[in-house]
From TrEMBL:
Biased amino acid composition, Polar residues: 33-57
Biased composition (Basic residues): 1-16
Taxonomic path: Eukaryota, Fungi, Dikarya, Ascomycota, Pezizomycotina
Protein source organism: Penicillium hordei
Disordered, as annotated region: 1-57
Listed name of the protein: Uncharacterized protein
Length: 713
């Protein structure tokens, strides 16, 4: 903007609702300048002008000067739809850690992505404003539209106004403002110091263990003035409380707030907020897997240990067995290294056992499945038996006898036995955290008191001579759990128990020839399968033509129900499809649609794909029935990682192998630890992306926040 060369007195302007005049010394306007703020937003009906007939001083130099009111901006009004799409895409994918703490990504993706958000917001734009798109803005048109608009602004909203000048009808300048602008003058000049910028921690600040979380507000205080972070119920079941831990909304400014030796954070995004700048990374080997930990070293001594929670802690509530067990292992390590007493780290595992036991018991009574036997025991159930002292087959058979001859009934009775400590067992041993009573869990189930006493006596007898190390079951049993880990997803509850991207390596299958695949599915065969799921070596038929054909024709899947009506379906290659459904169905049919080469699908799934990406030809259609009404819709994603997965999916559907896929740009592959021959260029098993130059990058190092343009279609 130009600057006015004339001498101007102070401009006094009365804002809407202001009690008095305010002098604006730093914002000097030429005399004769008036505001075009609507009359209802000003005090009085007169224009805020200073001297309607200004006198200009004579120029004393030959230098050519330009007054600000002579400079007329040439501004073309943009396309609002594209502008909003660009803004929402940036908000949803911006890698800034502070911006990621805000719910932009979840809200934008939850409502269908930038395109949907833009359509929703455009409905609130004045139609007169829309007529300006693609045209040069003129003061006359802006004033005309302003005169036709409603003058009622939200008391806490904002608006855009313009300033005009009586000496030049073409002059205008825009400025944003707040409807409660006058309230800003009531703020104190010096703000009082605030201890924390977010919700303060809850618990014992001298505790050795802390949980750094992204959310989990106390349910009762969420909408009150006394907001606080609550200890997650999942951890309360394990014995953690406000006395032996502190729960914290991660605040990087206050890292030295407590003396806790451990931090837990629920996602990898928290890592950038919590970890110190210089921190040594190592690996902690537990029963179920290796967990990354970070050591903060001071004066050659470990000052603090940071442990990454292996899975989101809502796995406890969803009864997702693999995830729950891995969290339990991390909790066991925590209680052991800090010597915290009274912790039941395997409470989540017990919840899964209870869920499965009740389902087995009910299915047996209804004749849906055969009676549970030693040979059909799930490996996680076997591990749970071992921790309870029933390590041998004869011990479990004796328990079955004491439980009335039904093994599923015996498990339910054992879960209700009053907890007792095994002799010589540490205080951190795994005991059920359920509130035990003799009340039935369901109307059809009632515990026999005689069986309860018989099982209690048996537990007491076994506790006198524990056959194995209580906290470290035999390696053979652990290996059995690992070897059959792919079965776990079908054994507990109705939830989809697939891992998230940081655990993709453990989900890949290998056929008889050692060929690894990208496939990982949750087909709806859970409810009518009576035999255990086939092992990896027997599943090659599901990853060849049959699966491809079913995906093209429509394949039935279970899904995960999440908060606010979100429904998530996971299909081949760890692809997650998100759809907001008010009443999520029990199952859906997913159909993959692939256009011929060089044709972009009008409902393309990966919105970030370019015209040269094969993923631009791919769309996913979700179909389900509610009552007698059939519903069909397409799903979209704006994530860069889904762009890569879409490309790989199309190549896989066209018959290409992983060795060929990794040579292409913008791809996603997974190499299983069970793979016999690892492809050239990959040093070890894991999940990998390729960038624009076909360079292989580990999934942990891949920049998921990288932005890409969307082609016009």
């Amino acid at each position: 903007m130009g600057h006015c060369k004339s001498t101007c007195r102070k401009l006094k302007r009365k804002n809407h609702g202001q009690q008095g005049d305010r002098a604006y010394e730093s914002f000097s306007l030429p005399s004769g300048v008036r505001s075009s703020m609507p009359p209802s937003r000003r005090v009085g009906q007169s224009q805020s002008t200073v001297d309607p007939q200004p006198t200009f001083p004579l120029q004393t130099t030959q230098e050519t000067t330009m007054n600000s009111w002579e400079l007329v901006p040439s501004v073309v009004f943009p396309n609002l739809h594209n502008t909003i799409c660009h803004l929402t895409s940036s908000l949803a994918t911006d890698p800034n850690v502070y911006l990621q703490r805000l719910p932009y990504h979840s809200v934008i993706t939850g409502y269908g992505g930038p395109q949907k958000i833009a359509q929703m917001l455009l409905e609130w734009v004045d139609p007169h404003i829309r007529t300006l798109e693609g045209r040069f803005l003129r003061a006359e048109e802006l004033l005309s539209i302003q005169a036709r608009q409603d003058n009622c602004w939200s008391p806490n909203g904002g608006y855009v106004d313009i300033v005009t000048d009586s000496r030049n009808n073409e002059y205008w300048r825009a400025y944003p403002a707040l409807t409660n602008f006058e309230l800003l003058s009531q703020l104190k000049e010096d703000l009082e110091p605030i201890r924390l910028p977010w919700v303060p921690p809850n618990g014992n600040l001298e505790a050795l263990v802390g949980f750094a979380l992204e959310y989990f507000l106390d349910a009762e205080s969420e909408h009150s003035d006394n907001t606080k972070i609550s200890v997650p119920r999942q951890f309360q079941d394990s014995g953690w409380n406000v006395m032996n831990s502190v729960t914290w909304a991660a605040n990087p400014i206050k890292k030295d707030l407590t003396e806790m030796t451990q931090f837990f954070w629920s996602t990898q995004k928290m890592q950038e907020l919590v970890l110190p700048t210089e921190c040594k990374e190592t690996r902690l080997k537990l029963e179920s897997r290796e967990v990354p930990i970070f050591l903060e070293i001071e004066n050659e001594a470990i000052r603090r240990v940071y442990v990454l929670i292996p899975n989101p802690i809502d796995a406890f509530l969803l009864r997702e067995w693999r995830k729950t067990h891995k969290i339990s292992e991390a909790l066991h390590f925590t209680s052991a290294i800090t010597m915290t007493v009274g912790i039941r780290p395997y409470a989540g595992d017990n919840g899964c056992i209870l869920t499965k036991a009740i389902r087995d018991y009910m299915d047996e009574r209804k004749g849906i499945q055969e009676h549970l036997a030693l040979g059909t025991l799930h490996p996680m159930t076997r591990l749970w038996f071992t921790r309870r002292g029933f390590a041998k087959d004869e011990d479990i058979s004796l328990l079955q006898e004491k439980g009335g001859g039904s093994l599923s009934n015996a498990i339910l009775v054992l879960l209700h036995v009053t907890p007792c400590r095994f002799q010589n067992a540490p205080m951190t041993s795994a005991m059920s955290s359920f509130r035990r009573s003799e009340k039935p869990h369901a109307p059809e189930f009632k515990i026999d008191k005689a069986q309860l006493e018989a099982v209690r006596d048996l537990c007491y007898q076994l506790s006198k001579n524990l056959p194995i190390d209580y906290d470290h079951p035999s390696d053979g049993l652990i290996q059995d759990v690992k070897s059959r880990e792919e079965d776990l997803e079908d054994d507990v509850g109705e939830a989809d128990v697939l891992e998230r991207e940081d655990l993709e390596t453990s989900r890949i299958c290998v056929d008889d020839h050692g060929t690894f695949t990208l496939v990982m599915e949750t087909p709806v065969t859970l409810w009518d399968r009576k035999k255990p799921r086939a092992c990896a070596s027997d599943r090659s038929f599901t990853i060849e033509g049959k699966t491809r054909e079913e995906l093209l024709q429509g394949h039935k899947y279970l899904g995960t129900r999440r908060g606010q009506g979100m429904f998530v379906v996971t299909i081949h290659s760890c692809i997650q499809l998100f759809r907001r459904i008010e009443e999520p169905p029990r199952e859906v049919i997913v159909k993959a649609e692939i256009k011929p080469p060089s044709q972009r699908h009008p409902h393309v799934w990966a919105q970030e794909t370019l015209a040269t990406d094969p993923g631009s030809r791919l769309a996913f259609r979700i179909m389900y029935t509610r009552g007698d009404v059939e519903t069909s819709s397409y799903v979209t994603s704006n994530m860069v990682r889904d762009l890569c997965k879409a490309n790989s999916f199309v190549h896989w559907m066209e018959g290409e192998g992983v060795a060929d896929i990794i040579t292409r740009p913008r791809q996603f592959v997974v190499v299983s630890s069970l793979t016999i021959t690892i492809p050239q260029g990959i040093s070890q098993p894991g999940s990998f992306y390729t960038n624009d130059y076909a360079t292989l990058i580990s999934a942990r190092d891949f920049n998921l926040g990288e932005k890409r343009k969307i082609d016009a279609v």
